[in-house]
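User: My advisor asked me to double-check a structure prediction for RNA polymerase before group meeting. I don't want to rely on an old file, so could you generate it fresh from this sequence?
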Amino acid sequence: MKDSREDIRLLQEIAEGSRSSFDRFYEKYGPFIYHIALRIVGDEAEAEDISQDVFLEILQKPKQFNPKRGSIEAFLAVKTKSRALDRLRKKRALLISRLEEAALKEDKGAEFHFLHQLEKNILLDALNHIPAQQREAIIRFYFQGEAQREIADRMQKPLGSIKSLIRYGLNNLRKQKEILNWIEPGGGGNKHEI
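Assistant: Sure, here is a fresh prediction for RNA polymerase from the sequence you gave:
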């Protein structure tokens, strides 16, 4: 209970502009917030950015915490999880857009250069939401550099089927993007109004 009272006091002092109280709060909860973010996004730099965002919000709005609604740890965990999931949704939508762009380009070298720059965790998450054969065809074509005819031989399918698997896989990724845009704040909730 002493820690809880101390945290409330620190937040009150932060609201009054105390830099030293913010520093103590940061030292106490920095690792806690960072580890939650890292567990969700799987990338150290992203976890650091999310942690910074959470602490910036604490600095700007220290009165958001309500001790009647739960512990400071629960408050910080929910805030961190929300920020991390928002970041994943945005990156996932961006990834799908970039895959679509890459599919339209004729220069296979540019596709490879672009796709290697994407974060692997976001890509794998997006690809895990499409059927297995579509995923395999996309991975073989875009990431392993196999020609479509080579993929057809390895997957023991006609060349036309491989082209269809890649096209349908990209379409399924596009549908994921549309769903993400629909559920994100400001992402198009009015698109279907007449």
